[in-house]
Amino acid sequence: MNKLTTQKRTQVVAALVEGASVNSVVRMTCVSKPTILKLLADLGTACAKYQDEKLRNLPCKRVQADEIWSFCFAKDKNLSEEMKGKFGFGSVWTWTAICADSKLMISWLVGERSVPYAVKFIDDLATRLAHRVQLTTDGHKAYLRAVEGAFGAEVDYAMLEKIYAFPPQEGVTTRYSPAQCCGAKKNKITGNPDEAHVSTGFAERMNLQIRMDMRRFTRLTNAHSKKIENHRHALALYFMYYNFARIHSTLRVTPAMQAGVATHVWSIEEIVKLLP
């Protein structure tokens, strides 16, 4: 990787953040796969560190949180007995929190869909906010304990619980799409949330964008992550691009500019220069 020019690194990163698979980037840029993965690991680490430092004291007022499913190495049903139950093999969830006004991706966490990871995720989210916020999540019960522990009474928190025509049955597997949603129930949990803004629409739209822009999240393909470390690096790189370098079609500026974190639209070359 040290022999790559900045121009070639920029070319590789531009392809990755626009949804190209690693193998297709190899063919387009004539850069070897190990070199691309090394660049992804180094730059992903640098992007994660930069955002961890800069996304602090944020002036957000309304925050939406959600989780998006993917898998690593193989799907749960295809894992060997020795791999089952080990994190990094099978189902992997990415917890995300987005600002409803600036569309900034505030915090994310790759892990399991469990209480310990919910606590870790919400604790991190709470440390990044400057003021009291209105928080909306889906009906996942793990959020109840996590939000109470991180915010206490200093939050206006509501859950949006979707109602399905045919609720999922234990032990019955459906194919990728849940049952038809026939309504939603808004549950006030803490504080005084404005019912008009109790929504997870922006978070769910972000989930769609992640699936469209990151090859690792594409369903019904073999483009999944093979290693959990690369999965984390790819997310850090993508969110760096989304927050700082991609102009939002509605805001006409980047989410980082809208939130006051950045003063200009970053180029991909600037992102590459985060490397030591």
What is the overall number of helices? 9
What class do helices, strands and sheet pairing give?
A: alpha/beta
**Major β-sheet, in short?**
6 strands, mixed
- Give the overall shape: globular
What percentage of the residues does DSSP assign to strands (E)?
15-25%
How far the N terminus sits from the C terminus, by CA atoms, comes to 12 Å
Helix content: 25-40%
Give a count of the beta strands, DSSP E runs of length 2 or more. 6
Global Rg: 19 Å
Describe this structure in words.
The structure is a single chain. With 276 residues, the chain is an alpha/beta fold. The chain is built from nine helices and six strands. The chain has helices at residues 6-17, 22-29, 33-54, 115-127, 142-151, 201-213, 228-245, 255-258, 268-272; strands spanning 62-72, 90-99, 105-111, 134-137, 156-164, 181-190. Strands 3-2-1-4-5-6 form a six-stranded mixed β-sheet, with helices on both faces. Strand 2 (90-99) and strand 3 (105-111) form a beta hairpin. The two termini are 12 Å apart. The mean pLDDT is 91.
